[in-house]
Amino acid sequence: MVAGVAAFVAWLGASIIVLGDGRRALALGVVFATAGMAVIAWQNAGTAAGVAIAAGGAIAAARRAVSGPDGWRIMPPGSTPRLVLCIASGLVVLWIAAAVTTGPGASLRFTVMLVAGLMGARVLAGEDPPVLLTATSVLALAVALPAAMGDGSVGPWPYVAAAVIAGTIGWLPLRTASAA
Amino acid sequence: MPSAAVLGPVVLPLLAALVVAVFGLAGMNLGRLAAAIGAWGSAAALVAVWLPVRSSLELLLGQLGYGSSLDLRVDGVSFVFGLMIVVPAALLLTLQPRTWPEAAVSLLAVASAMAAVEAGGVVLTAIAGGPAATLAVILLDTEDPRASRPSWSLLLAGWLALSWVGVVLQVEGGTAVYSAVPLTAVTSPVFTLLAASAILVSGLFPWRSWPTRLWARPSLRAAGITLATLYPLGFYLLVRAYELGNGRYPHPAFNVVLALLGLAAAVVAAARAQAVASRREFLGEVIPGMGGFALTAIALGTPLGLVAGLVLLGTAAAFVACLALLPDRAGLAPLVTIAAAVGLPPGLVFGSRALGIEATFEAGDFLGLIGVASAAAWAMWMVGGARAIGLPGGRGHPASETFPRIAMVIAAVTMVAGPALAAIQLGLANPVAADVMQASAGSLSGGLTSVVTVSSSLPVVTLFVPLLGMVVLFYAVTNMSAIHTQARPPIFTLPTPRLLDRARAAIRSAAVPEQYRTVLSVRELEAAAAGGRPVLWLAALIALAFAVTR
Amino acid sequence: MQPDSAVLIGLAAAALAFAVIFTPLATSRRALLFKGGTGLAGSAAIAAVPSFDLSLLILLALGVLHASIEGPRAFAVRLRAPVVAVATMAIALVFAHAQGSDAVQRFAAVGLVAGLAAAVGLLPYMHPLEPDEPMTSSPIPWIAFVGPVLAAVVVFRAQQLLGQDAGGVFGGLLIGLGLLNIAWGSVSAWLTESEVAAWRYSFVADWGLVLCGFGVTLADGGRAALLVLFSIIVGRLPLYIASRQALRDRSVAQRPINYLVAGALAGSAPFVGFVARILLLRAATQLYWPLALALALGMLLWLPGSLRLGRSLAVPRGRQAIGVSLVLALNVAAGLYPLPILLAARL
Lengths: 180, 550, 347
Known about the structure:
heterotrimer, A: 180 residues, mainly alpha, B: 550 residues, two-stranded antiparallel sheet, 23 helices, globular
């Protein structure tokens, strides 16, 4: 039950990131996605993993909340395809995680595939650096989650590394493209 | 003799190339001296390795990393082909002036070709022969980028095909060493690939290819080296193929097909030669013509045929040097050269062609008909040669590159050496037959004065010496200044050049129909593929996922 | 760290040293060293970390850092490929660990192959290229510097993660993509209008051989792939660096050195590319001889593009000439005697 809710929250967060262009929406999306992924990580890999994910996501959200386009800008004009993507991907991934693939950890599978897929799509379709960096931060956190599916011999290091990357990406100084 | 001595023929020209390059970069052109030392040193080393023992000497070092060891050996085959490569090259490097880069590249080409014939296995031959082709292209293009040269793609295709033969032998037979490949590994497809490689490497086509076109270049410095180093290598592969097959090709059909190919090359060269407009053009057909006859003889699959082919090839190697040194003006030198090249008795060309034709009759069946056709082609060469004497010389070459007396001496030597045919066969060609056709090599005998085969005996000395005497006598009593040559019309002209030109023009003018240009436009396709479009990326991912579920 | 990855990292370090010493353009050597060193450190980290998740995270970090380098292409454009690569491979990781039908593991194979192609910049995931772009911000570091190490790691991890059926699919996909890249890369290197694009496509063509080598899961295939990667890092990349000034000046030349360079780029003997091709043909012949035929025919397509690239080097002078000579000599040495490289990689 908890895992299911966490997975839903992660989906919600990822969807907000996909649908929102303003820094508040992005930050909120990061918060939700992080919360969901932190719970998933805590359940599957232990407290250290959950704390690392949460910390990384929190730093990324905090950074995004103060830098980037003003306001929310959730579902701006022309964002219907993005909405369709969020819903359709949620359903498809749910089916894959629950029916096509079997065994324990369906929530983990759902979360990783969905968040990675949506963040990848966001980067593919986006142009704004703050949006891209946000999506990349969340992607980093999602990439660490499959470590729980292995034998666990690497400990919390994937989660720590993901947290570091997610937390620092937002501070990257970016210049606009130089003239050719 | 220590086995490391087999490195001599390869290392000496390499060292000479290094010395030439170092001094050249320092601003000092060592001229012909260093090049001559390197090339003649290689020849001397080859002779020094072979002559004392006259049996195989092998150097086997460790594995190289691709299934082959560093395996070099000097046996009868590599000795004969080594001489064919290095002696004309040495002569040209000694006499013709070159810039130091040309000299260095020429020496590297000689070293590569020598390494190719000394290599103990197919893969190593391919690795050594490939650079020879590359260096030849470099030499030709550096000298004159606008003049014709062999297609680099075709040459590389030939060596790549040979390397594939090598790896197939390694996979199927466990080794690609010539003397160790099991007979079962040499299948018809493998041999087809090897034969194709040989044909590509030496340009053994029945149409006008690079062995002919090179002679039309304004300068013959690079052309001579190219022909000396590259042309024998295809024949070398076909001779080694006998060793792979324990004395024969996998199927008699290969003998017939290759013999026919050689015949076609010789006939078409003869047909072109008798219709040319200048003496230089005629002489340009000499090497392909001789090569065609040599291929016919070698492909017969009998020791006599092999011997005849090798003698003819060796003579062709001498003519490479001769033709590169011959100027395009009238005189005694071109007269003697043409007489020797067309096979007037008692020259080596005459003797070896006679042996070759006899070999076809001994082989019997369909191959006998090939002998008849060879004789007809020979007659056409005679006619062409007689006509060529009266033709204008050609465009001419820089005087500093031509040495008419030396060219004449070379041609004259091939004429005078006719009576020594038996000795040459005994000393040079028979060891090759013994190496590659062990089972049937004993069918040839005769000693220094005659060639004795299964069904006949050719008393070479007895027949050729009086002929030589007569030739000398006729020359002495004839007033050469009274002879006025004139250009005679050809017997016939081949329509193929016009047909080929039309076909080439048609291909060049071909274009994609207007309505399909956007689909097949390179620029559009490139923009679509390299544009980084997300739709394409997603579609590719879905397509891959779909493909794996089938 | 796997021995082959260690060898590739060593080679990449040598290539970086070459770039710093011999770069013809008026770029800051310090900046080049810093950026290249970062890439090298990242590559080493990708190979050294104990789990694939960490490798993906480092790859993502490298991707972001590379995308943030100043250049004419937008940040968004440069970020896409590494993000898609990481996302795809992360999803593949999930499929690899998940239970289910055979198709699940096959999807993992698809994800790994697609992710690798996207990271390196191969067809159908080629990175957009701006001809006037500085090399450090261009797709070249991916295809010639980080990509080789990444490929070795991905192939190694795939062997650990995938079962027999999915392993076969993985190999088949690599071969299929490999043949596609051979054809596309070699023809495009010949026909494309831009010289810089021609160089990039030549890398793509070589990578086609690498993919085929990895896909043919025999020892000779791995050896062939390693030697082709050697030729990319120690041959093609340094020669591309040496040609940068001439590409800017749009000068060409047809001297012996240009032909030698063309021969090296075309994989003709005695350069290391030829030996790699021999090993690949041997592996393909053992597996399925029509594949060897297709490869042999594809190998013939290298020459026209290589002749063009050889000319685009113009006439190297001074330090450039020394650098080019060194590269050619190393390639000849490796071509004649590749055993030490293979032994170092335990192949």
